[in-house]
Amino acid sequence: MLTNIGIPGLVLILVIALIIFGPKKLPELGKAVGQTLKEFKSSTRELTSDVMEELEDEKSKTKSKK
Questions:
Q1: Engineered SS bond to 25: which of 17, 21, 42, 55, CB 3.0-4.6 Å?
Q2: Is 66 helix (H, G, I), strand (E, B) or coil?
Q3: 5-60 residue pLDDT tens
Q4: Residue 56, Cα to own-chain centre: how many angstroms?
Q5: Sequence-distant (≥ 6) Cβ neighbours of residue 13 within 8 angstroms
Q6: Quick one: how far is CA 6 from the chain centroid?
Q7: What are the angstrom distances between the C-alpha of 11 and each of 25, 27, 59?
Q8: Are residues 11 and 19 in contact, defined by beta-carbon separation less than 8 angstroms?
Q9: Using an 8 Å Cβ cutoff, are 55 and 62 in contact?
């Protein structure tokens, strides 16, 4: 859905955000969004690695039983 926005749509969204939040709040809002995305990405990596570890454990248990 976001891939169809294009440059004019992105500029319009930024102008509306600037009008709503003002020039002083916009950097704070951007920083908060960036930190949220960073934490989400970190959590996703951690969850993925946990699942992969469990799969590897299950594979090794299955091989040892045979």
A1: 21
A2: coil
A3: 788 888 898 899 889 988 888 889 889 989 999 999 999 999 999 999 999 988 88
A4: 26
A5: 5
A6: 20
A7: 18, 16, 50
A8: no
A9: no
